[in-house]
Amino acid sequence: MCDIIWCKKEVGGKPCDTVNYLDPYCFWNWEGKVGCAECGTVYYVHMIQGHMYRGPDEKPGEKPDILPLYADKPYQGYDFYLPGIENRTRPFDCLPREIYLGHADTVKFSIRGRPLRGWRPQPPSMGVAGSCGFFWDIEKLSPEVWAEYQEKIKKGEVKDW
To answer: Using CA atoms, how far apart are residues 39 and 155, in angstroms rounded to an integer?
Structure first.
């Protein structure tokens, strides 16, 4: 599911009537200006969790921050703009925004405070398959996690069911 901006700006005596598709992958938590693929009209939008929080508000004379991925003209048959058309739509790079790139969080303890056998991400010392074996002697294999676990016990952070 994606949100749209249906441009109704008068261009040359006729309405633009272009549907600009805002894909959720890029516009999930986003605030900025989007340009229309047909007439170039700039709209301000503020999206939170994939829902239009504010906008689209027309911003004449400003430059767009981003272009839509896809646009079409439903009242004119099969007219459309595929991704990557210069000054109309942006290319589809299959990449998330910069804020979603990074490393996974290391989880060493369960929600109840007990140590986990398979940490995410696995440290290189675990080997290729990341297996600790059936019997896991945490005190010998991971002394730093054992010390952290003992501190959690002292503080009362380890819970039973």
So the answer is: 63
* Residues paired with residue 35 on neighbouring β-strands, in sequence order: 42
Q: Is the pLDDT of residue 146 over 60?
A: yes
Alpha-carbon gap, residue 49 to 144, rounded angstroms: 38
30-34, 84-88, 111-115, 135-139, range with the lowest pLDDT: 135-139
> How far apart (Å, rounded) are the C-alpha atoms in residues 65 and 83?
16
Count of residues for the chain? 161
Say what the pTM is.
0.56
CA distance 57 to 33: 9
d(CA 21, CA 25): 12
Does residue 68 contact residue 21 with C-beta atoms inside 8 Å?
A: yes
Strands 115-120 and 3-7, how do they pair?
unpaired
* Cis peptide preceding 15, ω within 30 of 0: no
